[in-house]
């Protein structure tokens, strides 16, 4: 009985040693790879924005809150506003406005 157990255990160890290890996990892809709408981060005064430009709208997260969608307004497609919040992109410069206040210039991107 002990011989059978020892023989069975030996065979199991030999077979376990013959198995190929699982493939190594693939590294995480870079941020934005495969994402048609990557996030750009801006600092506008004391406000942090995470912006995704999505053609006819911009998805904007303000200070880490849930994103809001701002529809494009005007023919140039560089102003996005819902009437309360406005994102403006002019000649590569971004600014952020609330209500009727003068838009604040942003840095980053």
Structure description:
The chain has about 110 residues and is an alpha+beta fold. The protein is about 15% helix and about 40% strand. It has a 9-stranded antiparallel β-sheet, with no helix packed on it. β7 and β8 (about 105) form a beta hairpin.
Question: In a few lines, what is going on in this structure?
Answer:
By secondary structure, the protein is α+β, with helices and mostly antiparallel strands. The protein has one helix at residues 2-18, and strands spanning 40-44, 47-53, 57-62, 68-73, 79-81, 85-90, 93-98, 104-105, 107-108. It has a 9-stranded antiparallel β-sheet with strand order 8-7-6-5-4-3-2-1-9, with no helix packed on it.
List the helices and strands and how they pair.
Layout: H1 2-18, E1 40-44, E2 47-53, E3 57-62, E4 68-73, E5 79-81, E6 85-90, E7 93-98, E8 104-105, E9 107-108
Taken as a percent bin, the fraction of beta residues is 35-45%
Indicate the mean pLDDT. Answer: 79
Count, helices: 1
Task: Tell me the Rg in angstroms.
Answer: 28 Å
Listing every helix as H and every strand as E from the N terminus to the C terminus, the arrangement reads HEEEEEEEEE
Which stretches of 5+ consecutive residues score pLDDT under 50? 1-15, 26-32
* SSE-based structural type: alpha+beta
What is the topology, as strand order, of the major beta sheet? 8-7-6-5-4-3-2-1-9
Spatial gap, N to C terminus: 73 Å
Number of strands: 9
């Amino acid at each position: 009985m002990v011989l059978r157990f020892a023989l069975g255990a030996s065979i199991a160890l030999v077979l376990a040693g013959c198995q190929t290890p699982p493939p190594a996990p693939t590294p995480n892809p870079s941020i934005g790879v495969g994402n048609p709408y990557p996030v750009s981060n801006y600092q506008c005064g004391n406000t942090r924005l995470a912006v995704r430009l999505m053609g006819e709208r911009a998805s904007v997260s303000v200070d880490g809150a849930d994103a809001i969608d701002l529809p494009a307004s005007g023919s140039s497609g560089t102003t996005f506003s819902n009437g309360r919040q406005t994102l403006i992109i002019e000649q590569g410069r971004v600014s952020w406005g609330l209500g009727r206040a003068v838009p604040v210039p942003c840095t980053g991107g």
